Each structure stands twice: as structure tokens, then as C-alpha cells.
């Protein structure tokens, strides 16, 4: 990482951040986003200190109003004396690795009210999140922020990975959403703990709501829905209308999770998902290493399948380290 | 692993809506592999300082077209210093007369990009104020 | 038609060449008047506005003394954004680049000792335009001039603010309603007033291409027509009073084609789509300004040549009025010398080049006619897209395009493409990426507004606040709020009363914000 005037070690940063120094928290997030040994050190230090915060994931198509909604949520939470933090994810350019992170624009009031907002680039990770997001959430949790709201990238279809990183998943749809996410409706139903029909001021909002309720009815009949039927709420995020009910529903969902086994199960799921993502990442690195030793075009007598099998054998035997 | 991208906070100070330059600069920096936290129009010293702090920005770029640079640029530099962020260099862009550059430099502005700065100059000046290598092309 | 015209060699020339449709004939591709500049030159309109109302009033009166009849007002940024001079965000911006108007008292100062029944006034303002119009009406009436006698133009084009210039105050829908209210008000009570100047200028300055400028501007024009018709007006009641404002950039024949295509498109759409029958509704009148963005900070004197060529394109495109930029504007406000050279440039075109002798002298050029057709075709593509988006309504299509950030994305793409081409050397900008030797001499003197203006203006505002009847202000503002909450009420009468009660621009805007809300742009980088 680039040398900085502020080059405190992770432990020192964490102590300062827990004491309320925002810049220290921000530095820790940078370390986590960067990865490597220092990030692992941060993970070690924050793991035992985290688990208290309620993690809320917000997903939805591009332009559905996620940032606007998150902005109002964070403002209201702050004004009510809470200490919310926001992690807002935007895509990195696959070509240059650069990114333009624009979510803060819609969260100006939240910033002014004192909420902590961090913009994050995917840095090549798929699924609407960055690989570092669970680590970032852990840092913010350890620093006493609660709740932690994660806004995913808005991609063509609703991304469902966020459900594995959050306690409560809010899916934002807008009038006319049905056409846009046709293919992924089933996935949506599976992950949503709460539906928000945003842009209620627009024509077609009633249709969108009906459409959703109908889908939920159908999935209840077929038995594919979970125990809790997700509520469908309406908002006009730009005017702040309906946001208080969303907030209440999110808090209510958290209470219900905490009252039963829900929260424990979700945390276990979150843990597993992170292990899986990290493992995948490590394997990818390891595969890269393995392949650097291989001649281009393979060996004359070996089929590609056989070559892959041979290399996998070496990997599993622990002959290579990523 | 590749290094962490340079993170730049970009904001427009002043009441006017001239954001063409700011947008072009955002794209130039993105295409040079940097992460741009875009704040857009009508920011205040407070929102800029908050963003620089929370985003752990390496550099902050402020665009001004209201001829208020001699008043506002020093305010930003001071506000950052008061927040303990004086190691984050401030780059000013927009309509800044040659004769004002000395005064801005004295006020702690790290670099000034005038109208007509090329993409290469924009990228080079961000790298330069960070003490990083100038680009090769 | 004017008497005969001879070239420098003494050859007599006809007022127009070619076959019908000629200038003055539908669809007015070749111009809206048969004689064009032989009958009357374009209006050489130069902007004035700086410091306090008193400062600008001095300039105005000097202008009138030297024979001018048209006053063109530039407001400072706080006024344009509906903020009072004592608002924290106004710091450092009061009286810079335009005049500060907080209350009707400033408006009165601006036009002190000027007979408002005898001049035309153009006010470049958008978000708070109805508030400023209301103040102008009050100043006139308090001076004994009825509103029906007032003549002038309000820019009042809010749609392009969301698309390009970003000086909006409220969300798009209530803002369009304010525009419609102004159109209704002036149609009923101010027959000589142009309530909207539909402006492509700022779309172009934000980085659009000529084709986009043409398409977006006309689409906005159609949107206002639809909004006014929806509010119950007949198209011929207001369409003759809509005017346009275009940019003139450096690609000479493309610009000429753009102006010609604009007239043709407007005429056809107004007649065929909106059912206008009054010829004045079909004739697109426009003001032109040379392209501020094309001015370079390097070798600024070269800008004089750029401005001259751009101005010539505007004239050959048939503009009704023209503003030429000063060569030193890439640095700051223009100096007086530079502003004079800019005006002289227009005079050279008008009196020395002979281009005024023949209407639409480029008409019939295979290239220019092709360019005109091509730009029209591209604009029609945009209109189709917007109609699809808006389920048959251009107004809804434009609002949807604002909401989704489509316009802003299109403009940003073009701006970036241009920038890349310049950086790659694929496009030559003289003095910038080629022929750069000789850049030592930068523009010398710069006009600066001193800090005292700001303090002075705040004191004036303070004095007005102390002298007025607060109860009357409260009542007037309550009426504004009540009217705002009812979409079918015309807000203008309430705004006139608020102005009369000495409510400030910022106070009225705050009240409206309370009802309409604010707007955060869809960020498209
Ligand atoms: N009419 C209306 N527009 C809204 C509403 N909420 C958000 N918008 C607008 O929708 C656009 C997108 O809003 P964002 O909050 O940026 O949406 P997003 O989902 O975060 O977008 P991405 O992060 O780009 O995927 C903006 O123009 C908002 O003003 C609403 O309730 N009604
Ligand atoms: Mg967003």
C-alpha cells in the first residue's frame, strides 16, 4: 500500500476507531479492501469484537432508488440517535480496474446528519458485492456501528449474493420491474425478507405491488416460500414517504430473527458464504500458480481433461500453495 | 496482487452547475485505473471533509467556476487540516487565472489544473501530488 | 423589401436565389422572413449584469442613451439558484457574473429611471423565473406601467436545467407546472411577453453534439407545448410567443444545417402534430450565442477568429439575434475591451461581408441541404425514442429521460468522446494540441468584482426586511404555499402579491420547496 502520514499498525487503528476516530475506521477499511497479511491481521482482531450489529442488505435493479432509500434510512437512524454505517458498492471497470463511485450523491443528508458512508468498488468480484465486504462489515461492527447497511451494485438482474452477507435482505423494485427481472423472480423470492416498491409516485406502482403479492401467493401454494412471508411496502424515497415503515419492518425482522434461531442460522450462513468465497479466491490463485508451470498447449499425449485431473491431484495433495 | 487503486474524491464547490469538466476528469481518472468517489455539484467544505475522511481518499479534486477560488480553496485546505487530514493533497480545477496560482500554492493547494489540461496532464498531476511516478505515456 | 444590393465589384444581386419554397415559405428551412437581413439586421444583443442593481442600472441607461432598446439581464448565481444574498451558500458569489436580486426593491433599482413601457427586457433566469417575472410586473405597476404593455423574454426553460445546466430548484414535474403557469399568465395578461426561450445553448456547452442539441432542444419545446395544451390553452394562443436559443460552434456547415433543420422540424411538428394554424406558431425564432466551451485559455487572441466564424454560421443559419463571446472568457468575466471586439465582430459581418444581401445564401448547396436533412433525420430518431418512452407523449418521454439519466448520459458520452479525440490528436484545436508555439502571452487584465458588493447587497436586503410589513409577507407566502399545493391553480398571481409584499426570492423558494420538495440529480458520469 502507498505510504501515508498515518501509518499506524492495525491494532492501534482499531483502538482509535473504537474510540470514535472515524479516520482510523476508514483506514482499517482500506486495509481490508486491499487484502493481504495486514487485512488478515485486521480480520483476526475484529472477528471476536463483531457479531453485534444488524446487517441489512439492499439490492435492486440499477436506478431503482437503492441509494436514495439508504440515504433516507441512514438519516432517520442517525437522527434517532443511532450509529448507522453504509457500505455502498459500485462496479469496477473490467478494462482499467478504475471505478466511479456515485452513491454518496444521494446520501448527502445522511452524511450531514453524521452517518458513516463508505463507497466500495467490486474490484473484479461478481455477484454485486466486493470480496472485501464481509470484512468491511466486521470492521464497522467492531467499531460500534449498528446497523450496517450494504447497498449492492445495481445490475441487470437483481443480485442475490447479498442475502448471504446480510441478516435482513431488502429487495427494491419499481413500477415496471416485472419485465426487467423476469428470469430471476424465483431467486428474488428466495432471498427477500422484505420487498419495497419504490417510486410509488409513478404510474404502475399498484400493478407492481399486485404482481409481487400474486407471486408470493403462488409460492406459498407451491410451498416454496419460507415460514415468513415477506411484507411488501411502498415508498417514494425521494420524498422520504413510507421510509419509516420500511425501517420498522427491518427492525421487526431483526427482532423476530433474534427471538428464534433465525439470527444464529443466518450468521452461520454468512460465515459459510464467506468461507466459500474466500476459498474460491484462494483456489483461483492456486490454479493460476499451477498453470504457470505448465507448457502452453499442454503435453502432446495428454487430453485437457486428463491434464486438469493431474493438476487437481497435485493441488489436493498440497503440493502447491496459493 | 496489484496495488490498491488510488482513491480520489471529486467535488464541485459553488452554486453553479458547470460539471462537464468534473465529469470528464472523473472518467479520465477511472480510465487511468483510479477509484473516483464522485460527490458532484454544490458541495460544502463539510461534505467534502466528511467524504475524504470516510472514504480514506488519497487526494481530493475540487472544481470551481465561480471565480471564488481565492476565497474557497483556502477554506477547504484549512477545513481538511482541522480534521487532521492535511496529508491529503488538494487539486483545484476550473477557471483559475495564471496570476492566482502563486496565492493558491501559498494557501496549500497542491496543484491547479486550468481549462484545457489534457488527460495525460490530469493523471500526471494526481500522481505527482501523491509522489507517485508520472505515467509513461 | 430593401433597396438594391451590390457586391464590392458593383454587381447587383437579388434578395434571394433558388426555387420555392423560398425564405418566408413553409416549412421555413430557408428562413422565416422573405427578405431576411436586407429588411432588418439581427439584433446584436450583449449581456449586462454585475454587482448590485445600481451598478447594472448605470450600464442599462448608458445602453439606452446610445440608442439601444433591448436590455439583457444576467443574474448572479445566488439569484439563479433562488438563494438570498445572505444565504451561507451565496458566500463569495453575490454580484459576480450577474446582478443580485433579492427583493422587488432590487428589481426597482435595476430599472430605475427606465420606461418599462418603452424597452424590451430579456431575463436569463430559469428556476426562479416566475418569481422574477412577478417582481418585474410589480416594478412596472408601481411605476404606473400596466403589465399588458411589458415586452420581453424570460428564459424559463427548466427542462434543459435537469439535462445540462443543473440550475434547478424543485423536482421536474412541479417545475414544468411553473413554466406552464407562466405561459398561461403571459398569454392572458402580457401579450408582448415571451414566456420561454427554449435553450439548446447549455446542452451544447455541457458537451452534446450539434445533432443532440437540435433534438433535445426541440423535444423540450414540444414538451412545453404539450404541457400548455394539457393546461387548457389552444396551441395558437401561446406558440407564437415561444422562442429558441441555440449555440453556434465551430463545425461551420453542421451549424448552418442545424439552424435550418430546427426551423423545418418546428414548422412541421407544430402544424401536423399539434394542429397550429397561425403562421407565427410555425415560425421558429431564435437567438444565437457563440460557443463558450470552444474558447481556449491558450493563445486567447485566436478566439477572436473562432468567434467570428461561429457568428457567421449563426447569421448564415438565419438567426434573429446574436451574442458574440469575448475572447478572454476562458479565463474569467470578459474585460470591456474584449467585449467591444466581440460586438465589432458582429458589425463586420453585418456591414462588411455582404452576407446580409441575400437570404439563405447557402440554400441549394448540395452539402448544406444534405446536412440539414441528415440532422433532421437524427432528431426524428430521438423524438421516436422519447415518444416510445412516454407512451406517445414527448413531455412524458422527456421526463422519463431526465429521471433515468438518459439525456445526461448521452451528453456525457459526447463530451468524453470529444475530449478523447482531442487528447489523441484526432481533432486539432489550434494552440492546444497543435501549433502551440507562441503561447507566452496570456490574456492580461481580468475583471474582478470586489468583495464590498456582497456586504452592500446584504445590507440592502436587511433594510428591506426591516422596513416591510411582516404580517403582509406572511400572508402572501401562505397564499403561495396554498396555491402550490393545488396543481390547477396558477401561481403567478400569488407570486405577484408576494413580490409586492417585499418577500425575497429565497423566502418564496423556501416556501415552494416545502411543497414541491428538492431535487437530487441522477448522477451520470
Ligand atoms: N420518481 C421517483 N424517483 C425516484 C424515487 N427514488 C429514487 N428515484 C430516482 O431514481 C433515480 C435513481 O436513484 P438511486 O437512488 O441512485 O438508485 P440506485 O438504485 O441506487 O441506482 P444505482 O446505484 O445506480 O443502481 C434517481 O433519479 C432518483 O431521484 C422515487 O421514490 N420516486
Ligand atoms: Mg446506488
Describe this structure in words.
The complex is a heterotrimer of chains A (about 325), B (about 140) and C (about 525). Chain A has about 325 residues and is an alpha/beta fold. Chain A has three domains: about 1-50, no CATH class; about 50-260, P-loop containing nucleotide triphosphate hydrolases (Rossmann fold); about 270-320, no CATH class. Chain A contains twelve helices and eight strands. A seven-stranded parallel sheet of chain A has the order 4-2-5-1-6-7-8, with helices on both faces. The model of chain A has no long low-confidence stretch (mean pLDDT about 90). Chain B has about 140 residues and is of the alpha/beta class. Chain B has a single domain (about 5-130), classed as 3-Layer(aba) Sandwich (Rossmann fold), CATH 3.40.50.280. Helix content of chain B is about 40%, strand content about 20%. Chain B has helices at about 20-30, 45-55, 70-80, 100-105, 120-130, and strands spanning about 5-15, 35-45, 60-65, 90-95, 110-115. Chain B has a five-stranded parallel sheet, with helices on both faces. The two termini of chain B are about 25 Å apart. Mean pLDDT of chain B is about 90; it is low at about 135. Chain C is of the alpha/beta class and about 525 residues long. Chain C has a single domain (about 30-425), classed as TIM Barrel (Alpha-Beta Barrel), CATH 3.20.20.240. Helices cover about 50% and strands about 10% of the residues of chain C. Chain C has 20 helices and eleven strands. Chain C has helices spanning about 55-65, 75-80, 105-110, 130-140, 160-165, 170-190, 200-205, 210-230, 235-240, 250-275, 280, 300-315, 335-350, 365-390, 395-405, 405-425, 450-465, 470-485, 490-500, 505-515, and strands spanning about 5, 10-15, 45, 70-75, 120-125, 150-155, 195, 195-200, 240-250, 285-290, 320-325. In chain C, the strands form three sheets. A five-stranded parallel sheet of chain C has the order 3-11-10-9-8. Chain C has a four-stranded parallel sheet with strand order 4-5-6-7. In chain C, helix 12 links the parallel strand 10 and strand 11. The longest helix of chain C is centred in the C-terminal third of the chain and has 24 residues, at about 365-390. Chain C is globular. The mean pLDDT of chain C is about 95. Chains in contact: A-B, A-C, B-C. At the A-B interface, helix 2, strand 3, helix 5 and strand 4 of A face helix 1, strand 2 and helix 2 of B. Strand 3 (about 100) of chain A pairs parallel with strand 2 (about 35-45) of chain B, so a sheet runs across the interface. The structure holds guanosine-5'-triphosphate and magnesium ion (MG). Guanosine-5'-triphosphate sits at the interface of chains A and C.
Amino acid at each position: 500500500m502507498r505510504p501515508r502520514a498515518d501509518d499506524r499498525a492495525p491494532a492501534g487503528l482499531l483502538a482509535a476507531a473504537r474510540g470514535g476516530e472515524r479516520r482510523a475506521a476508514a483506514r482499517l477499511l482500506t486495509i481490508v479492501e486491499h487484502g493481504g497479511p495486514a487485512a488478515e491481521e485486521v480480520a483476526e482482531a475484529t472477528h471476536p469484537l463483531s457479531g453485534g450489529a444488524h446487517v441489512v442488505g439492499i439490492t435492486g435493479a440499477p436506478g431503482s432508488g437503492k441509494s436514495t432509500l439508504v440515504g433516507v434510512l441512514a438519516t432517520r437512524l442517525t437522527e434517532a440517535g443511532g450509529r448507522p454505517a453504509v457500505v455502498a458498492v459500485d462496479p469496477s471497470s473490467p478494462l482499467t480496474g478504475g471505478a466511479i463511485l456515485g452513491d454518496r450523491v444521494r446520501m448527502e443528508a445522511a452524511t450531514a446528519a453524521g452517518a458513516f458512508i463508505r463507497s466500495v468498488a467490486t474490484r473484479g468480484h461478481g455477484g454485486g458485492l466486493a470480496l472485501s465486504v464481509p470484512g468491511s462489515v466486521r470492521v464497522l461492527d467492531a467499531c460500534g456501528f449498528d446497523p450496517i447497511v450494504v447497498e449492492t451494485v445495481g445490475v441487470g438482474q437483481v443480485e442475490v449474493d447479498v442475502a448471504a452477507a446480510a441478516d435482513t435482505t431488502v429487495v427494491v423494485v419499481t413500477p415496471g420491474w416485472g419485465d426487467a427481472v423476469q428470469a430471476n423472480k424465483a431467486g428474488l423470492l428466495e432471498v427477500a425478507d422484505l420487498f419495497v416498491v419504490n417510486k410509488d409516485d409513478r404510474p404502475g406502482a399498484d400493478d407492481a405491488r399486485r404482481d409481487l403479492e400474486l407471486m408470493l401467493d403462488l409460492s406459498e401454494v407451491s410451498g416454496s416460500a419460507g415460514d415468513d412471508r415477506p411484507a411488501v411496502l411502498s415508498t417514494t424515497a425521494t420524498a422520504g414517504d413510507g421510509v419509516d415503515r420500511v425501517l420498522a419492518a427491518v427492525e421487526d425482522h431483526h427482532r423476530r430473527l433474534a427471538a428464534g434461531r433465525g439470527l444464529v442460522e443466518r450468521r452461520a450462513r454468512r460465515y459459510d458464504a464467506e468461507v466459500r468465497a474466500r476459498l474460491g479466491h484462494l483456489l483461483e490463485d492456486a490454479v493460476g500458480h499451477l498453470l504457470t508451470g505448465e507448457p502452453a498447449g499442454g503435453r502432446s499425449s495428454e487430453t485437457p481433461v486428463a491434464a486438469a485431473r493431474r493438476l487437481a491431484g497435485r493441488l489436493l495433495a498440497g503440493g502447491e500453495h496459493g | 496482487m496489484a496495488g490498491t487503486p488510488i482513491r480520489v474524491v471529486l467535488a464541485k464547490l459553488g452554486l453553479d452547475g458547470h460539471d462537464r469538466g468534473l465529469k470528464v476528469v472523473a472518467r479520465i481518472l477511472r480510465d487511468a485505473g483510479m477509484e473516483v468517489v464522485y460527490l458532484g455539484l454544490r458541495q460544502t467544505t463539510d461534505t467534502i471533509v466528511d467524504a475524504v475522511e470516510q472514504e480514506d481518499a488519497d487526494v481530493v479534486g475540487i472544481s470551481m467556476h465561480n471565480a471564488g477560488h481565492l476565497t474557497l480553496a483556502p477554506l477547504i485546505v484549512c477545513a481538511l487540516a482541522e480534521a487532521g487530514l492535511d496529508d491529503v493533497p488538494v487539486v483545484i480545477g476550473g477557471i483559475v487565472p495564471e496570476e492566482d496560482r502563486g496565492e493558491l500554492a501559498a494557501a496549500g493547494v497542491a496543484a491547479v489544473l486550468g481549462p484545457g489540461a489534457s488527460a495525460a496532464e490530469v493523471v500526471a498531476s494526481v500522481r505527482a501530488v501523491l509522489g507517485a511516478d508520472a505515467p509513461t505515456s | 423589401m430593401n433597396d438594391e444590393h451590390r457586391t464590392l465589384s458593383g454587381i447587383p444581386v437579388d434578395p434571394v436565389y433558388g426555387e420555392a419554397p423560398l425564405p418566408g415559405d413553409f416549412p421555413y428551412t430557408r428562413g422565416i422572413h422573405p427578405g431576411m437581413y436586407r429588411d432588418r439586421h439581427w439584433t446584436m444583443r450583449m449581456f449586462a449584469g454585475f454587482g448590485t442593481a445600481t451598478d447594472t442600472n448605470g450600464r442599462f441607461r448608458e445602453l439606452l442613451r446610445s440608442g439601444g432598446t433591448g436590455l439583457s439581464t444576467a443574474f448572479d448565481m445566488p439569484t439563479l439558484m433562488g438563494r438570498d444574498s445572505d444565504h451561507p451558500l451565496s458566500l463569495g458569489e453575490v454580484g459576480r457574473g450577474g446582478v443580485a436580486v433579492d427583493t422587488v426593491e432590487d428589481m426597482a433599482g435595476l430599472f430605475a429611471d427606465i420606461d418599462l413601457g418603452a424597452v424590451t427586457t430579456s431575463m436569463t433566469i430559469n428556476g426562479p423565473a416566475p418569481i422574477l417575472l412577478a417582481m418585474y410586473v410589480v416594478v412596472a405597476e408601481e411605476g404606473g406601467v400596466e403589465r399588458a404593455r411589458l415586452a420581453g423574454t424570460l428564459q424559463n426553460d427548466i427542462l434543459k436545467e435537469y439535462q445540462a445546466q443543473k440550475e434547478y430548484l424543485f423536482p421536474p414535474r412541479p417545475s414544468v407546472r411553473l413554466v406552464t403557469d407562466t405561459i398561461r399568465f403571459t398569454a392572458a395578461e402580457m401579450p408582448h411577453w415571451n414566456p420561454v426561450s427554449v435553450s439548446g445553448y447549455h446542452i451544447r456547452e455541457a458537451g452534446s453534439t450539434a445533432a443532440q442539441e437540435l433534438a433535445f432542444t426541440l423535444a423540450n419545446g414540444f414538451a412545453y407545448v404539450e404541457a400548455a395544451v394539457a393546461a387548457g390553452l389552444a396551441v395558437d394562443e401561446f406558440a407564437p410567443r415561444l422562442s429558441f436559443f441555440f449555440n453556434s460552434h465551430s463545425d461551420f456547415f453542421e451549424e448552418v444545417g442545424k439552424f435550418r433543420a430546427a426551423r423545418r422540424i418546428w414548422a412541421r411538428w407544430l402544424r401536423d402534430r399539434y394542429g397550429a394554424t397561425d403562421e407565427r406558431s410555425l415560425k421558429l425564432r431564435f437567438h444565437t450565442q457563440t460557443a463558450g466551451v470552444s474558447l481556449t485559455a491558450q493563445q486567447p487572441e485566436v478566439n477572436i477568429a473562432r468567434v467570428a466564424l461561429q457568428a457567421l454560421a449563426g447569421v448564415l443559419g438565419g438567426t434573429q439575434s446574436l451574442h458574440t463571446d469575448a475572447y478572454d472568457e476562458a479565463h474569467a468575466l470578459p474585460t470591456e475591451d474584449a467585449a467591444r471586439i466581440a460586438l465589432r465582430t458582429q458589425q463586420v459581418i453585418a456591414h462588411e461581408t455582404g452576407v446580409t444581401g441575400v437570404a439563405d445564401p447557402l440554400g441549394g448547396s448540395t452539402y448544406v441541404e444534405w446536412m440539414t436533412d441528415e440532422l433532421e433525420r437524427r432528431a426524428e430518431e430521438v423524438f421516436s425514442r422519447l415518444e416510445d418512452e412516454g407512451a406517445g407523449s414527448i413531455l412524458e418521454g422527456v421526463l422519463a429521460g431526465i429521471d433515468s439519466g438518459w439525456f445526461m448520459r448521452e451528453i456525457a458520452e459526447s463530451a468524453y468522446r470529444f475530449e478523447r479525440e482531442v487528447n489523441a490528436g484526432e481533432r486539432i484545436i489550434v494552440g492546444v494540441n497543435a501549433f502551440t508555439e507562441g503561447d507566452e502571452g496570456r490574456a492580461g487584465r481580468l475583471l474582478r468584482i470586489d468583495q464590498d458588493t456582497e456586504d452592500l447587497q446584504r445590507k440592502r436586503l436587511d433594510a428591506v426586511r426591516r422596513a416591510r410589513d411582516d404580517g403582509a409577507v406572511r400572508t402572501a407566502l401562505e397564499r403561495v404555499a396554498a396555491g402550490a399545493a393545488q396543481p390547477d391553480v396558477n401561481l403567478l398571481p400569488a407570486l405577484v402579491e408576494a413580490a409586492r409584499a417585499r418577500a425575497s426570492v429565497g423566502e418564496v423558494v423556501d416556501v415552494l420547496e416545502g411543497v414541491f420538495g428538492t431535487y437530487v440529480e441522477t448522477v451520470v458520469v
